[in-house]
Design goal:
mainly alpha, 2 helices, 93% helix
């Protein structure tokens, strides 16, 4: 029973209304603390903004430097590619000359040889025709001599 009475009193004491209402002095102290922390936060934000603008300025200048470096690098690469293209063009011309000139000589030689072979062929055929006609005349003459001796 003692415990029951003790716990009842304890719970009643806990449940009693708290006399913790804030006075004007307490509110003024809270306002001062909040104002001080607000000033510190504003100083931190201002410092962060200064560092951010300084960083942005350095990035802009570094970016401009990098842009010029990239442009210079692109120009150098384009010049290099142009030189390589010129070398390839020269090599192609040399290859064409090395292959084309002998092929031209071969084509001209084959054409001349074909023309000469064709002329020989027609000449040979005409000679063969003459030989056959002469053979026929010789045979006809032989037959006449055999018949009229």
């Amino acid at each position: 029973m003692k415990y029951l009475l003790l716990f009842s009193i304890l719970f009643c004491v806990i449940a009693m209304p708290a006399l913790g209402a804030l006075s004007d002095d307490d509110l003024n102290q809270i306002r001062l603390i909040v104002a001080d922390s607000e000033k510190q936060i504003r100083l931190i934000i201002a410092d962060s903004e200064k560092r951010l603008t300084a960083t942005m300025n350095t990035l802009k200048t570094e970016g401009a430097i990098r842009d010029t470096e990239i442009k210079n690098l692109n120009e150098a690469m384009n010049k290099g590619f142009d030189n390589v293209q010129k070398n390839f063009d020269r090599q192609n011309n040399i290859i064409i000359a090395c292959i084309g000139i002998p092929m031209a000589f071969l084509a001209i030689g084959a054409t001349i040889w074909g023309i000469l072979a064709h002329k020989r062929g027609t000449r040979d055929r005409s000679l063969e025709n003459e030989i056959t006609t002469l053979k026929q005349e010789v045979e006809t003459l032989k037959q006449r001599q055999v018949i009229t001796p």
